[in-house]
UniProtKB/TrEMBL annotation, chain A:
Domain ABC transporter: 3-230
Pfam families listed in its UniProt record: ABC_tran (PF00005), DrrA1-3_C (PF13732)
Source organism of the structure: Natronobacillus azotifigens
Family in the record: Belongs to the ABC transporter superfamily.
Protein name: ABC transporter ATP-binding protein
Automatic annotation (TrEMBL), chain B:
Primary subcellular site in the record, as a coarse category: membrane
Domain ABC-2 type transporter transmembrane, residue spans: 19-392
Species for this entry: Natronobacillus azotifigens
Residues annotated as transmembrane: 187-212, 233-259, 284-306, 318-337, 343-361, 373-395
Topology class, membrane: Multi-pass membrane protein
Molecular functions (GO terms): ABC-type transporter activity
Name of the protein in question: ABC transporter permease
Domain of life the protein comes from: Bacteria
Swiss-Prot/TrEMBL keywords: Cell membrane, Membrane, Transmembrane, Transmembrane helix
């Protein structure tokens, strides 16, 4: 089931939160939403879930909008984490799981598998408020995926986690995708998006400024990165024709060049200048694309 | 529908199992037990101390015997003791704590009693009033005796006038309420007034708290992405209603057993004081109907308001107007108890927020035509539906709103957020 947004716009009074988004999110893939704070990601998710209605445009999943008939097939991890602070982990997950149409025994079986996986089996009978923030987030994640949803929406799933826990959650996400779940998630962290997503969309001020598959986006960006480590001063390369930008490091520099061909003229220029330790031509990182598209103000 | 029951049982069971619920219920039960055994407890304290004694210096030689006999027969918490010393000695004995006071009795020129009471406990006036009224009786007896009127004539003079109120039958054979029916209904109205007042404030607050809690802990967004907000709102209202019925049921059951066990003491006491013995069955039916409708009305209002706040601290502030409404209804009903036919009672009985108390009062005390009751119930149901529709919209939009404080602007914004376009 493909998720299709067609000309979706949401206005709050005079403020336009989401402006004319038209994208298709393919089935059984991971789709990333990138954007600065306030770019309209959360509003888009809420419209997809049917929590708020778009001002204009349509959203359909497998041919019709998502309504309460189909919520059992959807998992949602909101950006604002929320659990009952006074309820035990067990009761919490049982309640939320039953609201997603599961029965109690299945929930308990699944919950134990997940707790084991996240190495927090001791917390089954603890109140949520007694858990650390990272562990609360794991419980929140479990509540979003315990009913094996077909469509999983994760709003900033990795924010506020330490690297070990990010890895744990990332692996879980990949496994869910392999099991056939369509996953839509938003993030500020470029490296995670690059690692996980095949498809993505960069949003700014409610508008999708780039979207498509990661490969296509990188290819159409055109510009490449050139890493040079050398014993001599490299500042003169700044004025080399075809060089867009230069960033100096202690051991060398990173050049952004207009096309692959420029690398060869740079190579010629470096000849006879001295000892060159590293000369590498690389694809642009998502970070480069994001900064260029969204603006220097946000890094 | 399945999810409706899940939410309902969740809000019922978590509240039922909570410590605060158990503690309040236990405290209330304790209170009922204490009230039921009030007399026993008072007696217990009184038995510890001996009866207070009043020293009597009798100059007339006859009065003491008569007065002592009367005090002995009556149920007083003091007794008399003849004192043969001087007044000064007696006063000293009072200061030493031996007596609570000294009563000096004399007769005047016409052989009528004259008394003076000396005490250091001027605040305890019951003793002197009781002594005074007993002496008054003695005086009347002596005076009439001197005037040559015999005892039987005196008794017939003091006999109350036979006075009976008879209701005139209507053309269709129905009579207006008899005195007994009205006083019975009055008792029931009192009870329902208090129950509804208690229920609206306690359980309405609980609903608003529950919703605000789900909002402030941000679990709301997951909930409304799982099942419809409107269904959740009514599941919550029903869950808390069930909790209320459980709690009131426990109290009534406890009350019933207490009354059963105390039957000898209470027969003709409590029930007759409230006049529960002579009430038409329809009044009970109306009591249940108006109680449930009243609860539903105020619960829907509370749920709507609860979804507007995002912090627990704001709940009380927002519940204020609701509580004021209940208090207003309560005041009107209280005044209306003595003047049920007054114009303002008739008018306010149609205002939905006052109907459950005021219309019930009219139904209980007067002969209200069925169509009038039907109209007021109709208005109430319409208001509940209207409030539910608005409430559901506000709830849907309000749960996604996280602002500080509450204002009319938030209300508008909540409606806007939920707008279908």
């Amino acid at each position: 089931m493909t998720l299709i947004m067609n000309g979706v716009t949401k206005r709050f009074g005079k403020f336009t939160a989401v402006d004319n988004i038209s994208i298709e999110i393919p089935e059984k893939q991971i789709f990333g939403f990138l954007g600065a704070n306030g770019a309209g990601k959360t509003t888009t998710f809420r419209m997809v879930l049917g929590l708020i209605d778009p001002t204009a445009g349509t959203i359909s999943w497998g041919g019709s909008p998502i309504d309460y008939e189909r919520t059992d097939q959807i998992g949602y991890l909101p950006e604002e984490r929320g659990l009952y602070p006074k309820l035990k982990v067990k009761d919490q997950i049982i309640y939320l799981g039953r609201l997603r149409g599961m029965d109690k025994n299945d929930i308990l079986t699944e919950l134990n598998i997940w707790l084991e996986r996240f190495k927090i089996t001791d917390y089954l009978d603890k109140k949520v408020e007694e858990l650390s923030k990272g562990n609360q987030q794991k419980i929140q994640f479990i509540s979003a995926v315990i009913h094996k949803p077909k469509l999983l929406i994760l709003d900033e799933p990795f924010s506020g986690l330490d690297p070990v826990n990010v890895e744990l959650l990332k692996n879980a996400v990949i496994e869910l995708k392999d099991a056939g779940t369509t996953i839509v998630f938003s993030s500020h962290q470029m490296d995670t998006v690059e690692e996980l997503c095949e498809y993505l969309c960069i949003m700014q001020h409610g508008k999708p400024i780039v979207h498509g598959s990661l490969k296509d986006i990188k290819r159409s960006f055109g510009k490449k990165n050139l890493f040079i480590h050398a014993d001599f001063d490299l500042t003169f390369l700044k004025d080399h024709p075809g060089v867009v930008a230069q960033k100096l490091f202690p051991e060398g520099c990173k050049l952004q060049i207009e096309s692959e061909a420029v690398s060869q003229t740079v190579l010629t220029e470096l000849n006879d200048k001295g000892f060159v330790r590293k000369f590498a031509l690389e694809e642009p990182s998502l970070n480069d694309i994001f900064i260029e598209k969204v603006g220097e103000s946000y890094a | 529908m399945r999810k409706f029951w899940i939410v309902l049982s969740h809000s019922y069971l978590t509240r039922l199992k909570s410590k605060s619920f158990m503690i309040t219920t236990a405290l209330f039960l304790l209170f009922i037990l204490l009230m039921a055994n009030f007399q026993t407890i008072i007696d217990l304290f009184d038995q510890d101390s001996q009866l207070d004694r009043v020293a009597v210096i009798d100059q007339s030689d006859e009065l003491f015997a008569i007065l002592d006999e009367q005090i002995d027969q009556g149920d007083y918490n003091f007794e008399l003791a003849r004192y043969d010393g001087t007044l000064e000695d007696a006063e000293q004995a009072v200061l030493d704590g031996e007596y609570i006071g000294v009563l000096e009795l004399e007769v005047d020129a016409e052989q009528l009693p004259v008394a003076s009471y000396h005490t250091d406990q001027l605040s305890n006036q019951s003793v002197q009033y009781q002594l005074e009224s007993q002496l008054q009786q003695i005086k009347v007896a002596i005076a009439t005796n001197q005037a040559g009127i015999d005892q039987e004539v005196l008794e017939s003079i003091y006999q109350p006038v036979p006075f009976e109120t008879v209701a005139i039958a209507q053309a269709d054979g129905t009579t207006s309420r008899t005195e007994e029916e009205i006083s019975g209904a009055r008792g029931l109205v009192y009870v329902i007034l208090f129950l509804l007042y208690f229920a609206v404030i306690t359980y309405g607050n609980m609903i608003a708290m529950d919703i605000a809690n789900e909002k402030s802990s941000r679990v709301m967004e997951i909930l409304i992405s799982s099942s419809s907000p409107i269904g959740q709102m009514f599941a919550k209202i029903s869950g808390i209603a069930l909790l209320g019925l459980t709690q009131i049921g426990i109290f009534l059951l406890a009350g019933y057993f207490v009354i059963q066990s105390k039957q000898e003491e209470l027969v003709g006491g409590f029930f007759e004081a409230f006049g529960f013995t002579d009430i038409p069955a329809s009044t009970y039916v109306y009591a249940v109907v108006f109680f449930l409708l009243g609860y539903l009305l105020y619960a829907t209002l509370s749920a709507m308001l609860g979804s507007l706040v995002s912090r627990m601290e704001d709940v009380n502030q927002l519940m204020m107007p609701v509580i004021l409404l209940v208090v207003a209804a309560f005041m009107i009903a209280m005044i209306g108890l003595s003047t049920p036919e007054a114009n303002f009672v008739t008018v306010t009985s149609y205002i939905p927020f006052f109907t459950p108390l005021v219309m019930f009062l009219r139904v209980g005390l007067l002969e209200v035509p069925t169509w009038e009751i039907a109209i007021s119930i109709g208005i109430m149901i319409a208001t509940i539906i209207l409030l539910a529709l608005i409430g559901a919209k506000v709830y849907r939009g309000g749960v996604l709103m996280y602002g500080r404080g509450v204002s009319l602007k938030d209300f508008k914004q909540a409606l806007q957020l939920s707008k279908k376009e």
